[in-house]
Amino acid sequence: MKQIITTTKAPAPLGPYNQAVLSGNTLYISGQIAINPETKALVLDDIKTETHMVMNNLRAVLEAAEMTFENVVKSSIFISNMDDFSAINDVYGSYFNDATAPARETVQVARLPKDVNVEISMIAVK
């Protein structure tokens, strides 16, 4: 059985999907971009600020499912420019303990929703 996870502390979906789905003990979080959930504005000041906004949105969804970044087992990072990899990686890494960090891939893509620079999805387990 699946349970839909939603929170007003992360941006509402931009299409026919949910912020996250909990199936058993596994949480599947849809890709998050840098939309401020309070103002609905994109946060694109610089790549580090943008990545922090994405991670804060992911944290809000995890918290709505009563989880933390420690529960994350897999991340997928989509970026529009591989030259931003180091800055994104620095911010992303600050949210995890290196010894227990999740599996991950980072892929450069041609374009992301709303022309953002980074989108991250996650899988977490209780």
From TrEMBL:
Output the lineage of the source organism: Bacteria, Pseudomonadati, Bacteroidota, Flavobacteriia, Flavobacteriales
**What InterPro entries is this protein classified in?**
RidA (IPR006056), RutC-like_sf (IPR035959), YjgF/YER057c/UK114 (IPR006175)
What SUPFAM superfamilies does UniProt report for this protein, alphabetically? YjgF-like
* Signal sequence, renumbered to the chain: none
Gene Ontology molecular function: any one: deaminase activity
Q: Which Pfam families match?
A: Ribonuc_L-PSP (PF01042)
Gene Ontology cellular component? cytosol
The organism's superkingdom is given as: Bacteria
Name the protein family. Belongs to the RutC family.
| Gene source species | Seonamhaeicola marinus
NCBIfam families recorded: Rid family detoxifying hydrolase (TIGR00004)
Which PANTHER family would you find in this protein's record?
2-IMINOBUTANOATE/2-IMINOPROPANOATE DEAMINASE RIDA (PTHR11803), PROTEIN HMF1-RELATED (PTHR11803:SF58)
Q: What is this protein called?
A: RidA family protein
